[in-house]
Amino acid sequence: MDSRNGALAGVRVCSLGAIWALPHPTQIMADMGAEVIKLESIQVGRQTYVTTPYPDVYRGFADLDPGEHPWNRAVYFNDGHVGMKSVTIDLTRPKGKELLRKLVLATDFICENFSTGVMERLGLGYDVLKSWREDVIYLSLPGYGNTGPEADYVAYGTNQLGMTGITHLTGYIGGDPHQVAINYADPAAGIHAIMAVLAAMLYRKKTGKGQFIDGSQRETSIRCVGEYILDYQANGRLGTRMGNREPSRAPCGIYRSAGPDKWIAISVGSDEEWEALCRAMDDPMWAKDEKFADHLSRLKNQDELDRHIEEWTSQMAPYEAMLTLQHAGVAAGPALTNAEVFEDWQNKARNFYQSVDHPEVGPRRHPCIGWMMSRTPRHIPRAAPCLGEHNEYVLGELLGLTRKEIAELEVEEIIGKVPLPEADPMSRPEPGRIRSKAEQMPSD
Amino acid sequence: MPERALGGYKVLSLGHHIAGPYCTCLLAGWGAEVIKIERPGSGDPARSMAPFFQDKPHPEKSLLFLYLNTRKKSITLNLKTETGKKILKELIRDTDILVENFSPRVMSGLGLDYESLEKMNPALIMTSISNFGQTGPYRDFRSSEVVAQSLGGLTYMTGDPDRSPLKLGGYQAQYQAGLNGGMATLTALWCRENTGVGQHVDISIMECIGSIMEHLDAQWEYYREIAVREGQRWIGRACWGPYECKDGWVTMCLLRRRMRPLGDVVGEPVLKNPEYLMNTGLYADEIDMLLKPALENITKDEFYRKGQDAGMPVGIVATPKDILESPQLQARNYHVEIDHPVIGKLRYPGAPVIADGTPWVTGRAPLLGEHNEEIFCNRLGYSKQDLAKLKEYGVI
């Protein structure tokens, strides 16, 4: 392997992962140099995940414009599949299954997060793949697992997050369990699962043995609130919503900053940090009150403490407050918007957001991964693939098919680059429903 | 004896609190040996973190510590003494992986920076988890759960439009960092198995959150729209989020055909209106005005079962009680009973996934310094008298 291309250079992944749970960790692998081949089909098309409540404004597409090939301009798909390659194969037909067999032989593992039973019904379950290669590593990560009374229940991100116990703990103080902006259980599940796959790969390298890995997105992510499960058994507590407070820290919260909808997060956990905070605020009189003199008192008088803090923070812009506080020795940081994250100094210094050029959408920046390595790079290798963009490469170069064979597969519509008419309707929105770009763009 | 995926690999952990320990907890679960190095006397600061068993603060009763440190060994070492450092280096020479989550200055301050350690063990993988990474203008800044989630971009977009941004409950930024640490460590290990050399893995808690904005950072990059707080709705849609019912809360992700059975399940036929199914955004208020009262008559379990039987993607807002009592989790043997000499038996969340060839393995958290004799005497060759002296000098 040439590790100059990344710690996972030479690793090749066959991914049927959809939406986010498996695209996320396989994307991480691509940023580490692995070749991730996303298997799609023109029969199903591409879920463009139109993210709008209104039927005729296409906020799911780059520049609000579905363009001529909407399936290559979908924001959710493109952002989630940066770094990957795409091959389309109709797995329902024998020739398609044969192509999968060849692909499984040419890759290090196969992963999918379909609903339970989908692969079995296609005749492509673990037993079949194992007959192709004894040492296959196969990860199946449906919502609730491949076994059990709820195995065939339908998941979806918001539901998963609720099922893991995390939603129950998220909300304003004394408030309702709250919706979260992202489907947090997905990446939590995916990384747990792919970590297990890496462990399986290491094991196979030593022993030659592969295995079936059966995951439940629910079971992975419950592990992120394990202490509450123990607390309930030991102390009968169910846990509750604490807003932005953290246990044993005061003051702790997200406070108004100067400017419209601007906020700064601050968290103090010790006497030393409290003294630093007071210095940063120029030792205001109110801070000398007995009510705030020691840690326990500050915890008891947190509501009043928060009001005082917010009077101070409201005068300062978020980054100004952050730098003042951090230089004094206090944990603080703005609640950055999805736009501000791109411009943050730390992100820029570490080259966290990287631009890649897409043939139909142009150059766009995407986040890289949560870590760097000293010897091998972290690097987004390419933009998201167009549908079937790598058919010739995968089928020809990797699997050894001739041009004639590939052309025949195209004629038979086993492979292709354009979704068929019966594919997901959102792959090809009706032209009549598209409003002009001028009508769609929000006014400045 | 079942096979261990990471059997034979040795991990030394200087991890404390949450992120480092969660990383090594996962490595231990997949079969690596994890030796946790703790400060003599008080140990990992997480031993002082609530919740405690029966609310009795005690270094062996922190439920957070017990959960995060399953199947590890514990030795005590004072790294501020020369002898302590010397012993640590002896251990490092023979280890595959070293995990730490101190502020970036600490390890170099102790003479234990990667460059120095690499010389004594070129195959070493050193995994460092820190608030902002080992480099950059924020390198030496402080952080916490709410600060990390905010700088990652997550809090601004979560919550109500007329209230403050909102963090995810629990310690999600730190768990994510530990989890990324686990994957990163195995990535480096894979590279080492193919090249012979280790490297330094530098994990940033801020970046771990920044990397999971889903498509919301793309919403800016692809069509210049700020992701704002939308309360309980998702992209302005009704039927996509948490809803209160008779005895708790449920969630639903319903649209178009998936939403069709809703009217029947909750006993409100007006909800079957095809206009509502197609436009949960446009008619969000109308839908909620019908749906919320109807849900007052149905329990969360009923809604979940009837809804799923009708093919609707619905769930419950599970409490720890719901999780322990879940028939699905019980059928999958998810909860693992672990016994502990001080607090007795409790059921812990178990394997993240079921790897049938190399199953997840667990065991209780260690008592402070429990394995001093095993490691210092049996493995490093110190005598019991040596241990007594080291204890006297405050080294262990």
Verbal overview:
The complex is a heterodimer of chains A (about 450) and B (about 400). Chain A is α/β, with parallel strands linked by helices and about 450 residues long. In chain A, about 35% of the residues lie in helices and about 15% in strands. Chain A has helices at about 25-30, 75-80, 95-105, 120, 125-130, 155-165, 185-205, 215-220, 225-235, 270-280, 295-300, 300-315, 320-330, 340-345, 345-350, 390-400, 405-410, 435-440; strands spanning about 10-15, 35-40, 85-90, 110, 135-140, 210-215, 250-255, 265, 330-335, 355-360, 360-365, 370-375. In chain A, the strands form three sheets. Chain A has a six-stranded parallel sheet with strand order 3-2-1-4-5-6, with helices on both faces. A three-stranded antiparallel sheet of chain A has the order 7-8-9, covered by helices on one side. In chain A, strands 10-11 form a two-stranded antiparallel ribbon. In chain A, strand 1, helix 1 and strand 2 (about 35-40) form a beta-alpha-beta unit. In chain A, helix 1 (about 25-30) packs across helix 7 and helix 10 (about 270-280) crosses helix 13 (about 320-330). Chain A is elongated and about 85 Å long. The two termini of chain A are about 50 Å apart. Residues about 50-55 and about 430-444 of chain A have low confidence and may be disordered. With about 400 residues, chain B is an alpha/beta fold. Helices cover about 40% and strands about 15% of the residues of chain B. Chain B contains 18 helices and twelve strands. In chain B, helix 2 (about 65-70) links the parallel strand 2 and strand 3. The longest helix of chain B is centred in the middle third of the chain and has 24 residues, at about 170-195. Chain B is elongated. The two termini of chain B are about 35 Å apart. The mean pLDDT of chain B is about 95. At the A-B interface, helix 1, helix 2, helix 6, helix 7 and strand 6 of A face helix 2, helix 6, helix 7, strand 6 and helix 8 of B. Strand 6 of chain A pairs antiparallel with strand 12 (about 355) of chain B, so a sheet runs across the interface.
